[in-house]
What does this fold into?
Amino acid sequence: MNKGTILVTGGTGYIGSHTSVELINAGYGVVIIDNLSNSNRDVLDGIKRITGVMPDFVEADCTDMAALTRLFETYPGIKGIINFAASKAVGESIQKPILYYRNNLNTLMNLLDLMPRFGVKGLVFSSSCTVYGEPDLNPVTESSPIKKATSPYGNTKQISEEIITDVINSGAPFKSILLRYFNPVGAHPSAEIGELPNGVPQNLIPYLTQTAIGIRKELSVFGDDYNTPDGSCIRDFINVVDLAKAHVVAIERMLTDKSEAPIEIFNLGTGNGLSVLQLIDAFERATGVKVPHKIVGRRAGDIEKVWADPSYANNVLGWKADTPIEETMLSAWNWQKKLRERGLM
Ligand code: NAD
Ligand code: WQD
It folds into this structure.
């Protein structure tokens, strides 16, 4: 069974690798393009160990129009694209804005430019809950106001959404689905693939698992004086495999002409807000491992609370994120242990 070939940009990255697995499991052929700026080739072996299939891989940069064009010439049957390739560190984007605008926007524009030429029918784009900033009301729906971006990274997501909208409205011969992820966490239950943070992790879960295994002395909880029940920030932590599955549904929707509009937007979250302290507790309950932590001051730029109303995705896509948080935390822990076994951390 081959339902067609999907190009996964950034496919050796965290979410891209999990999505490649789900695409292969659903019967799609997968071609990955990645410049390995934030991932490595071993991820391909992990995908093969899970699925039995080694995806085709092109090591190239999506900002390189000539390389992308060659890829489409080599694989003339590409039906859809899932565009994960982007730089994603919020703090780094403030230091290196041009890198972020160039990488994230040129990648997108190159793909949009080539899609009609090579008859590609659909584009899934990785957007983010960061577009909502600090919401006035939770949970946020797809029509909640877009707030001014607080980082160049966040701005690339807002501008990307606008670029795709303009291109679709110009009468482009393809469809697009924008997926706004909340906080993706966890790893594949096989522990063959997961998140590979570079250097000292900035995000909560990799910092937490590295603390639990003893690489870091203690986890700093950034603030307990927020206007939330326990004073720590609230997020919508979504299991990465649940998230990956939504991409398969989105691709299928466009390729089978089920889209209700040429461009559609969906929030991908669980609908449950969990505080940082509740998450630490869930990790400890799930794994039996204590996480040394201390409360420190707030981190500049943090949102107090944000969680999704995922009902539009639930009802229209027939998709739901339903992995219990304890299971997700266990998967993150098993992945951390696997990295240690392999001598990678
Ligand atoms: P990741 O860094 O693990 O994966 C991105 C991959 O893209 C990496 O393998 C990197 O090497 C590759 N890449 C970057 N620029 C490239 C280029 N120009 N050409 C080819 N490859 C390139 O990140 P992720 O967490 O898997 O995120 C995937 C997407 O989802 C990104 O667009 C990110 O902005 C978005 N997103 C992530 C989160 C999150 O918390 N992880 C939340 C919301 C949105
Ligand atoms: C989560 C919570 C921290 C680390 C980021 C991007 C966002 C999106 C998802 C891409 C916050 C707290 C963290 C630590 C802590 N990415 N924390 N100690 O900031 O919600 O979102 O990733 O689009 O755009 O901004 O995620 O994991 O960094 O933080 O207490 O060592 O954990 O303060 O409340 P965040 P995060």
Summary: The pocket of nicotinamide-adenine-dinucleotide (ligand 1) is lined by residues 9-10, 12-16, 33-39, 61-63, 84-88, 103, 107, 126, 128, 181, 184 (CB under 6 Å).
